[in-house]
Amino acid sequence: MKRFVEGEDRRQATLLPDSLEDYVTEDNPVRVVDVFIDELDLEALGFSGVVPEVTGRPAYHPATLLKIYLYGYLNRIQSSRRLERETQRDIELMWLTGRLMPDFKTIAVRRDSGPAIRAACAQFVVLCRQFNLFTRTIVAIDGSKFKAVNNRDKNFTVAKVAKRVEQVEASIARYLTVLDRADREDGDMAEAKTIRLKEKIEGLQRQMQSLREIGKQVEAAPDKQVSLTDPDARSMATSGKGTGIVGYNVQIAVDAEHHLIVAHEVTNVGSDRAQLTAMGRKARWASGCEEVTVLADRGYYNGDEVLACEGTGILPVIPKTQTSGNAKRGLFTVADFIYDAENDRYTCPAGEHLTKGKVRSDRRDNIDNYRNLTACLTWALKPRCTPDKVKRLKRWEHESVLDKMHARLDHMPEAMTIRRQTVEHPFGTLKAWMGSTHFLTRTLEKVKTEMSLQVLAYNMKRMINIFGVNPLMQAIAA
Fold first, then answer.
1. Burial of 193: CB neighbours in 10 Å, binned 0-12, 13-18, 19+
2. Which of 14, 153, 251, 393 qualifies as a FRET site for 178, CA 20 to 30 Å off?
3. pLDDT in tens, 438-464
4. Are 176 and 194 in contact (CB under 8 A)?
5. Phi, psi values for residue 13, rounded to 5°
6. pTM for the predicted model, two decimal places
């Protein structure tokens, strides 16, 4: 084979064995994994087995198993069975572990060391903070749905149970009709058909009994939902019309300057409406900033959540959710009425003032009503204002908190662009790493651990891109 690059003969013997160190370059990311894990105090983080037992067979050090997992997530290999194969053929892993080749059951430390692994992920965020990477004090938060190890057919709600019961009843009725027709026929074919139909009807009756039992479990569940494979997974709506997945809602807070994931959380609540305060507090604590501006989309707009952020160093910036249909009907909207905080009144498009109505002694809500009982009766543009006799505006007693948030948004017209550019890219990257598949673990606690490994790998790769391998290794070891 002339004129081609030729390799060595497989049977060629060497005088001295090659060193693994020669195969791993100085700027290989696997060296960062090695240095970072070696610098961790695994016992303080909660890993078991750091101190070996006096008797029995020697165990693998938890640092070795954690290195294998972190290396796997950095290279899109999340399965412990695949990692077992990689330890036998991947030179970088051989270098990282010193040619140790534990089996997949031994590698699977995420099963029993969840809190410790999550603490290791948080430790890397602390490391980023020590490098002064969170100085801009702006984070963007968002949530995305990730599939669980639970098929949609194995998830039940009240509506799903009722629909499936209806389908089974219709199938039974159809088979009974066919069976009645078969009974009136003669011959061996008719007899075999009758036996087959009876078996199908018996199977459907067993399925009906199972559905009734599941229906009782659904009614007894707090959220009226039951998943058979992963009991913590929940059915969640997605952006596509009529679509949904059974999975988890992953929340992340991303630094706007370096696009590092500052904080993350996994929940089985499908809505983002109640996540603002929790994610804001996590981001503020992780970044170490006294005050942090939190950018979020309309899915987080919740007056009670915004109020809870007041005075805590969390400054939310969220566009208001437009729920009124007045604009489509050609009517004036709330934005056309200007609020005067000093005089506690609204000014309408006609220049008239809407004042607060009297508060009833038996009022149970915290909403004030503003109206003008005389001007509305004579105004020429009243048909564009309200179809009612008098225009009434409702104002929450803590509306001033929302007004301040809207003022922050007015001073940051690019806020939603920054949010989209900051927080949506990490989700795309994480899902690309996972592939078109689901979480590999079951139950909420184990899924949290699996997500922590994904976030740790993402942040480490970002840091390598920012610093480079050698400077980052020196900074970690300093």
1. middle
2. 153
3. 999 999 999 999 999 999 999 999 999
4. no
5. -85, 150
6. 0.87
